[in-house]
Amino acid sequence: xxxxxxxxxxxxxxxxxxxxxxxxxxxxxxxxxxxxxxxxxxxxxxxxxxxxxxxxxxxxxxxxxxxxxxxxxxxxxxxxxxxxxxxxxxxxxxxxxxxxxxxxxxxxxxxxxxxxxxxxxxxxxxxxxxxxxxxxxxxxxxxxxxxxxxxxxxxxxxxxxxxxxxxxxxxxxxxxxxxxxxxxxxxxxxxxxxxxxxxxxxxxxxxxxxxxxxxxxxxxxxxxxxxxxxxxxxxxxxxxxxxxxxxxxxxxxxxxxxxxxxxxxxxxxxxxxxxxxxxxxxxxxx
Length: 286
Known about the structure:
Blueprint: H1 3-6, H2 15-18, H3 25-32, H4 42-55, E1 58-59, H5 61-64, H6 73-82, H7 89-102, E2 106-114, E3 126-133, E4 136-140, E5 153-154, E6 159-163, E7 166-173, E8 176-182, E9 187-193, H8 200-212, E10 223-227, E11 232-236, E12 239-243, E13 249-253, H9 256-265, H10 273-285
Antiparallel strand pairs: 1-10, 2-3, 2-9, 3-4, 4-5, 6-7, 7-8, 8-9, 10-11, 11-12, 12-13
């Protein structure tokens, strides 16, 4: 079964809805350390995805500090680009989608249900992207954290992507797509989604719930993640976890001050003195 038979080409979303025109591409490219071509080709797409993933960490600091998360494109640029911070999935992927559109790619923003190994039905808490390159749809995702894609993966059943020591695949499950990561024992479900048109208000609603509901994974608990080609890092409150492709996991309990330092040293997150102080207070009280 071909990609054309299973998924229509991604539909371009209105830049007026998403704030695409306010993006500063030069500043963004400096932030991710990319100085290559800006044409809408497969090579540019893969390089931009990899550069973003390797530079900007996943983090929920603003949620923990009860600041909320703005999806306004000007605010996203100020935070992830100018301030040297990271963000969570909505922030990462909406910013990346806007940059891709500025370079001529066709992008469809999707909402997905996170599984992370469970079949429990969850609300659509994750953002992902379907990007059309030429006539071929790809799944792109720079905002899933430690176990997320390093490079995009072609969106057709059984498609495989590899980066370093990690492997992913996409499969069809009834009327939806499922992204999986290969673990030493078997394939591990990451998230599922249907290909459908979404609007900015859809993301605003789920973003508000995710940043305010006590049932949200990200409320009240510091979570910071990054994945490279051969190791994955997770900081959950003071516990620092390092995971390897062979299944080994190292867990180290940090002090409050050490945990804040890990944000700088491992995740390359720039914190203001006030943010560092507030995070130490949060960790001390947790």
